[in-house]
């Protein structure tokens, strides 16, 4: 059960059940849709970008605990960040969920993302954790739809 | 709607599912330190030793191409391949010339859509399907409809997951050229009332294709008694290997249909001016077929016949009732689909736990279930769900499997409490 408790940490369960930044965003400057065709997860991510920084990010949609928690944590973390900073965070996150915490010796760079350290033990769930990030990158790059496939 | 073979006994002899597990090597293992509980047989069944050995034996002793060489191995391979066709024909109660080997039910439906469909369906016509269908019995028809300017029309299901026959009756209108319907829903387990459905279509002269991918392993089929025009099934859902399946079609249709793929084996003669086609069934079998796959499928049918499909069906039905009651006794469990007749499958939700989270947690208890849309997105939309959890059963499933599932679901509920 230890790997399971690594995956479903309290923080993830909490964010999965009571996602932060959930709901439509008034005055969004960009919107993107994320789809995981494998499981039918679907989220719409909206951001308000001003002065070169993400002022706010919110999401709606349906998904598993992992994908909701990921979207919930991410939308909180990216506030006040530039697109380049968001991209750097994504790279850290991606290494974490595909290779595990060992892949990031600079653990402090993970910050709140560290709660996703158990995902790498569950290769089929990496896409769940990544969906929100792919969708956010798509929104920031002016895309409309991100897919995990 | 069991096999209805004329010689089948009215009361099947009971058989011991637990004892049969020893025939399936893959079942005898641990995952994550727990004994494997395989409840994903609707996706693919495990294979009995007899099937694995038949395939190995073919490659070790008889391997050669079929219908070509005059040498000993080619003769043996041809005999094995055509013997497999005869075994399938007996399973279906069909003429062997009406048995076409394909990759699986999906390819069978595509074959009918692209060959028979293009012959029969034109601009403004309608192809009637049902909301229960797997994507493989929807998308091939959409491709055809797009190509010829026709429409795919879905017949609705009620809240229990049964087909609305009155609505289907209305949809089989003057522009309907074909009805494609499943024997058993892979997502809900609904057994469709095929005799009534086929009668409706036949009364209007509308040909019917039956997707037997889920039905064949649990109910079998007698294509002569059924009265449909086409029947498709996959070997790998019937204890056989992947990559082999069967399209059965009425001979008059198959004779009239153009080939859908060209190549070796399907021709009588080839010149650059004109080629002529081989006889049935070879007209639809271009290229070297999956010979070992056909041999493996025949071994699977022999295995099933030795037990008897009626006995298997009775055992599975009893276990399904037990599993349904066990799931209902868990607080928060909601069954999706409560059809009048059910085979093979239970779809469910547990509280507000997403099926993917559920499947991950029970997997770590050794229990393999499916989570997702089951390649039936329109059906999921009908029930307003992005996904369900699905436990599916086969002849080797036992009450101990159900108990393990229940324990694993309780563990999942604890995680999300």
What would your notes on this structure say?
- The complex is a heterodimer of chains A (149) and B (417).
- Chain A is of the alpha+beta class and 149 residues long.
- In chain A, 40% of the residues lie in helices and 20% in strands.
- Chain A has a single domain, classed as Sufe protein. Chain: A.
- Chain A contains 5 helices and 4 strands; from the N terminus they run H-H-E-E-E-H-H-H-E.
- Chain A is globular.
- The termini of chain A are far apart.
- Chain B is α/β, with parallel strands linked by helices and 417 residues long.
- Chain B has 2 domains: 17-47 and 309-412, Aspartate Aminotransferase, domain 1 (Alpha-Beta Complex); 52-305, Type I PLP-dependent aspartate aminotransferase-like (Major domain) (Aspartate Aminotransferase, domain 2).
- Chain B has helices at residues 17-20, 49-62, 72-92, 105-120, 139-148, 165-171, 194-203, 215-219, 223-226, 251-256, 291-307, 309-328, 355-363, 377-382, 399-415; strands at 30-31, 34-35, 37-38, 99-102, 126-130, 151-155, 176-182, 208-211, 230-234, 245-249, 267-270, 275-277, 333-335, 345-350, 367-368, 370-372, 388-392.
- In chain B, strands 4-10-9-8-7-5-6 form a 7-stranded mixed beta sheet, sandwiched between helices.
- The relative contact order of chain B is 0.17.
- Chain A binds chain B through residues 1, 3-4, 7-8, 13, 16, 38-42, 62-66, 122, 124-125, 128, and chain B through 353-357, 360-361, 364, 371-373, 377, 380, 386-387, 415-416.
Summarize the structure.
The complex is a heterodimer of chains A (149) and B (417). By secondary structure, chain A is α+β, with helices and mostly antiparallel strands. Chain A is built from five helices and four strands, in the order ααβββαααβ.
Provide tags for this entry.
heterodimer; A: 149 residues; alpha+beta; Sufe protein. Chain: A; 4-stranded mixed sheet; 5 helices; 4 strands; globular; B: 417 residues; alpha/beta; Aspartate Aminotransferase, domain 1; Aspartate Aminotransferase, domain 2; 7-stranded mixed sheet; disordered N terminus
């Amino acid at each position: 059960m230890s790997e399971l408790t690594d995956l479903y940490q309290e923080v993830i369960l909490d964010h999965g059940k009571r996602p932060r930044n959930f709901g439509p965003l008034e005055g969004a400057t960009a919107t993107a849709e994320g789809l995981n065709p494998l499981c039918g997860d679907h989220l719409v991510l909206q951001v308000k970008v001003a002065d070169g920084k993400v002022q706010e990010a919110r999401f709606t949609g349906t998904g598993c605990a992992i994908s909701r928690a990921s979207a919930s944590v991410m939308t909180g973390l990216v506030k006040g960040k530039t697109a380049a900073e968001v991209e750097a965070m994504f790279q850290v996150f991606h290494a974490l969920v595909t290779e595990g915490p060992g892949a990031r010796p600079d653990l402090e760079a993970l910050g709140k993302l560290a709660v996703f350290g158990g995902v790498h033990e569950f290769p089929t769930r990496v896409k769940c954790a990544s969906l929100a990030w792919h969708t956010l990158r798509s929104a920031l790059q002016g895309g409309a739809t991100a897919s995990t496939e | 709607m069991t096999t209805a073979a004329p010689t089948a006994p009215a009361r099947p002899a009971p058989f011991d599912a637990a004892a049969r597990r020893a025939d399936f090597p893959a079942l005898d293992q641990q995952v994550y330190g727990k004994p494997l509980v395989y409840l994903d047989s609707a996706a693919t069944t495990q294979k009995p030793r007899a099937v694995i050995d038949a395939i190995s034996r073919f490659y070790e002793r008889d391997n050669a191409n079929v219908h070509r060489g005059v040498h000993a191995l080619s003769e043996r391979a041809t005999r094995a391949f055509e013997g497999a066709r005869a075994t399938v024909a007996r399973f279906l109660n069909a003429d062997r010339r009406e048995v076409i080997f394909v990759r699986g039910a999906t390819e069978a439906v595509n074959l009918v859509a692209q060959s028979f469909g293009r012959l029969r369906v034109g601009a403004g016509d309608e192809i009637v399907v049902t909301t229960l269908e797997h994507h493989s019995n929807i998308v091939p028809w959409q491709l055809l409809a797009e190509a010829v300017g026709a429409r795919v029309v879905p017949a609705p299901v009620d809240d229990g997951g049964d087909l609305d026959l009155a609505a289907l009756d209305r949809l089989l209108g003057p522009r309907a050229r074909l009805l494609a319907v499943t024997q058993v829903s892979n997502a809900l387990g609904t057994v469709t009332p095929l005799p009534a459905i086929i009668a409706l279509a036949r009364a209007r002269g509308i040909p019917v294709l039956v997707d037997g991918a889920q039905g064949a392993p649990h109910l079998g089929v007698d294509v002569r008694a059924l009265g449909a025009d086409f029947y498709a099934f996959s070997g790998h859902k019937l204890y056989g290997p992947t990559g082999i399946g069967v399209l059965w079609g009425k001979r008059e249709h198959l004779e009239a249909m153009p080939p859908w793929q060209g190549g070796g084996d399907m021709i009588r003669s080839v010149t650059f001016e004109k080629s002529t086609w081989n006889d049935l069934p070879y007209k639809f079998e271009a290229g070297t077929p999956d010979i070992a796959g056909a041999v493996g499928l025949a071994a699977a049918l022999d295995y099933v016949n030795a037990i008897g499909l009626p006995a298997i069906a009775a055992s599975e039905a009893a276990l399904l009732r037990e599993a349904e009651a066990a799931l209902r006794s868990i607080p928060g469990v909601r069954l999706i689909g409560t059809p009048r007749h059910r085979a093979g499958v239970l779809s469910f939700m547990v509280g507000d736990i997403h099926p993917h989270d559920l499947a991950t947690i029970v997997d770590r208890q050794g229990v393999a279930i499916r989570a997702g849309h089951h390649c039936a997105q329109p059906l999921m939309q009908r029930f307003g769900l992005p996904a369900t959890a699905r436990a599916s059963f086969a002849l080797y499933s036992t009450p101990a499997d159900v108990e393990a599932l229940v324990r694993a679901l309780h563990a999942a509920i604890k995680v999300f409490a």
